[in-house]
Specification:
Structural class: alpha+beta
Shape: globular
Distance between the termini: 38 Å
Largest sheet: 10 strands, antiparallel
Strand content: 25-35%
Oligomer: single chain
């Protein structure tokens, strides 16, 4: 609901449980008054207080005690009397950059409009949301800023974006345009970010705010392994289940900035948007520029409350298409099984073995095209290598389909190898700067998606492959970041537009291909989790969470990812040991339980397993099929953090609270440890739940407030290889000694009344 009080010039945006309030001052300045727990009041005029802070602060409009720098701004400009970090910065034709944006008008409309050329959240009918558009104008320069706020009914979120409109006769240069800015009248916050590197993405980092600026950002041409386009400010006392959280998430996949600043008076500023680093955009007379969308979430129910809002919203109003609400298949991927060393016979042998386990999808990874026997060549040459796949792709797909498996395939369409037919024909189709070295990463260069010819080529060759056989899944990879960022087709004055124009080209490609093939399940991959962001999620409803398949490291990666993203968006696989990334040896059952934190699959050679491992896989696959709906569509609760202790635990609970899956991990063995119990969150306290392994019945309140005992050893009638013992689907799922290194246990609870 959006309310405008004409008398006080106050906007009150009400989501399910929160309020967001702004006010237009008499002189046209738009102030931010409040964001937090939902309020009844619409008029908060008493918040605006003026004071003579000292002669070093300039008076706005030369009005005594009226200093914009001491007031909370809604969308601050640069170079007038607010000298804090701006949300927008322009360079005008006369070379100056001072801006003075003031309120002109507004409108409130039903529904939510699409953002031209950019991914964004959506409504299925106009009754689901209201959108407020506020027009601010710098009248001296005839430039407008249009602020858009969409309030979703039932999702407790605010979607924000910004449009800049050049109504002057001159060309202006945009140097900074952030998507959201919120000013707070205090600084008693801690900052949460999701950071890491390749193979250890999205680790949770929590630090106190301090005087001055703190930011996370990407300058890599992608949202990156190193940082995620997300920022939260929380109270120091905030926990998983209680306390206030203010969070921003950016629906964008390129360079971003998430910034906080504590000024000299202890006020805090929180911002998110495209990174102004190495960015500029020439806006001709009459043109518009659209910023990406930022999603704002407030929770007074701790981090879990925030996560549930993001997870529910992104899974229902960002992800889209046929697969949004469908259970995802269990897959086998041949990458860690064979790397580039495979042929048709080897692939069919793995697929045949997979079919005996009840696995549903075979994915053919890198190496099936061109002359690709290593990573040194052939990216860009998207035709089948018949030396490996005799008879072509359709023959192989048909044979694997006949085994009862769907077929999926790997692409890396955004890249080109210098040793390739494509590069020989079109050496200027890659990002490069004339006269400078073309730096390679993984022996590849990045195609220049600012060029429409390049985009259309990718659309054609990928579409031709997808039409050639019954392909039902695509893994879309991207294995390097940008260097020497330049385009052969852009004039000198537009070269700093390249990185953003690349993202617009990528979104055009993804939008076109996913629309042409609506029944294909697309999974994004960027060297694992290097582009796990809301922008890509709008086109591809799941992401390969990380190239690191080690079960212990995956605990941190998946735990951190769950802070913002739904579990149905996470690809999680069981791999061989010693693990190929960290050389750790973990129990097979532990690897299975860890991978059941998202969309389940395998990444190993199924033809080289022991009989015991084969029995475990069969049990794991059968068990995951039983719990799949809870994992993929239930609510996720973090119980014990891998960033805070040796024990890790989480729970999935179905939306109707009729079913729960609880996973527990102990990373390192401890001598003579005490007993451990887990208090389960999210159950019906008045219900009765049955443990599917032991048939023990617990009250929901017992499980929530007394806890579930973690066994110190596993009963002898349940064997690690799944042989013997009780006839339970997941008899082979548990580790044999719960107090050993890398131990794990899993419970399946069903409500019986």
């Amino acid at each position: 609901m959006i309310i405008f009080d004409e008398k006080s010039k106050t906007f009150h945006l009400k989501s399910n449980k929160s309020s967001y309030i702004m006010k237009v001052l008499d002189r046209g300045h738009l102030l931010h008054l409040y964001w937090g727990h939902q309020l009844r009041a619409d008029n908060l005029d008493y918040i605006v207080r003026l004071k003579d802070w000292g002669s070093f602060l300039a008076n706005t409009d030369n009005v005594e005690k009226f200093h914009l720098e001491s007031l909370p701004q809604e969308y601050p400009g640069y170079g007038s009397t607010d000298l804090r970090a701006p949300a927008v910065e322009l360079e005008y034709a006369d070379g100056t950059s001072a801006t003075d944006f003031r309120y002109v008008s507004h409108k409130i409309i039903s529904g939510k409009q699409k953002l031209l050329g950019l991914p964004a959240t959506y409504v299925e009918n106009d009754s689901e949301a209201q959108t407020l558009e506020i027009i601010l104008c710098d009248t001296a320069k005839s430039v407008e800023v249009i602020l858009s706020f969409s309030v979703f009914d039932g999702y407790d979120t605010i979607a924000r974006s910004v449009k800049i409109v050049n109504k002057s006769t001159d060309t202006i240069k945009i140097q900074r345009v952030l998507s959201a800015n919120v000013d707070f009248k205090e600084n008693k916050f801690e900052m949460i970010q999701l950071s890491g590197s390749w193979a250890r993405e999205r680790h949770i980092i929590r630090t106190p705010l301090r005087s001055g600026g703190q930011c996370i950002e990407s300058r890599r041409g992608a949202s990156s392994h190193a940082q995620n386009p997300f920022l939260a400010l929380i109270r120091p006392e905030t926990t998983e289940q209680s306390g206030e959280v203010y969070a921003m998430s950016l629906v964008y996949s390129g360079n971003f900035l998430a910034n906080t600043e504590v000024d000299m008076y202890g006020n805090s500023r929180m911002q998110i948007g495209m990174n102004p680093f190495d960015f500029a955009w020439l806006l001709e007379s009459g043109e518009e520029f659209q910023s990406p969308e930022a999603i704002l979430v407030y929770s007074d129910k701790g981090l879990t409350g925030m996560s549930h809002v993001f997870q529910n919203f992104y899974s229902k109003r960002l992800m889209r298409g046929t697969w949004r609400d469908k259970e995802r298949p269990i897959l086998i991927n041949n990458w860690e099984a064979t790397y580039f060393d495979f042929n048709e016979t080897k692939i069919k042998a793995i697929a045949k073995q997979a079919s005996t386990f009840g696995i549903e999808l075979f994915v053919l990874d890198d190496g099936w095209f061109g002359e690709r026997d290593s990573d040194t060549c052939s990216l860009g040459d998207w035709f089948v290598n018949e030396n490996k796949l005799s008879g072509g792709l359709k023959k192989l797909v048909d044979e694997i389909n006949d085994m009862g498996l769907k077929f999926g395939i790997w692409f890396e369409p955004e890249m080109v190898c210098p040793i390739s037919k494509l590069y020989t024909m079109h050496p200027d189709w890659c990002l490069h700067i004339d006269g400078r070295n073309r730096s390679q990463a993984r022996r590849q260069l990045i195609l220049d998606l600012t060029q429409k010819d390049v985009c259309d080529y990718i659309i054609k060759v990928v579409s031709d492959v997808l039409k050639s056989a019954n392909i039902e899944y695509v893994k879309w990879d991207m294995n390097r970041n940008m260097t020497e960022i330049g385009s052969a087709k852009l004039p000198p004055q537009r070269q700093r537009e390249t990185a953003h124009r690349y993202m617009l080209g990528l979104y055009y490609i993804m939008d076109t291909i996913t629309a042409k093939f609506p029944d294909i399940l697309f999974e994004s991959c960027s060297g694992g989790g290097g582009r796990f962001d809301p922008g890509i999620l709008a086109y591809m409803p799941q992401t390969w969470t990380s190239d690191d398949t080690d079960a212990m490291e995956r605990l941190k990666i998946q735990y951190g990812t769950s802070l913002v993203y739904p579990n149905i968006a996470m690809g999680c696989h069981v791999s061989a040991v010693p693990n190929h990334q960290v050389q750790r040896v973990t129990p097979f059952a532990t690897r299975g339980i860890a991978a059941m934190g998202g969309n389940y699959g395998y990444e190993l050679d199924l033809t080289k397993l022991s009989d015991g491992e084969k029995r475990q896989i069969k049990a794991q696959v059968a068990f995951y099929k039983e719990i799949r709906k809870v994992i993929q569509f239930g609510e996720f609760y973090r119980l014990k953090s891998p960033f805070e202790g040796n024990e890790v635990a989480w729970t999935f609970v179905s939306k109707d609270k009729s079913e729960a899956v609880v996973s527990f991990f102990r990373q390192s063995a401890e001598p003579n440890p005490n007993f451990t119990s887990l208090c389960i969150v999210g159950l019906d306290p008045n219900g009765q739940y049955q443990d599917r392994l032991t048939d023990t019945i617990y009250g929901g309140d017992e499980l929530m407030y007394v806890g579930l005992n973690v066994p110190d050893t596993v009963s002898g009638n349940v064997n690690i290889d799944g042989s013997g013992g009780r006839d339970k689907l997941f008899a082979g799922m548990v580790s044999p000694i719960i107090n050993g290194d890398y131990a794990a246990f899993i419970w399946h609870l069903k409500k019986i009344q």
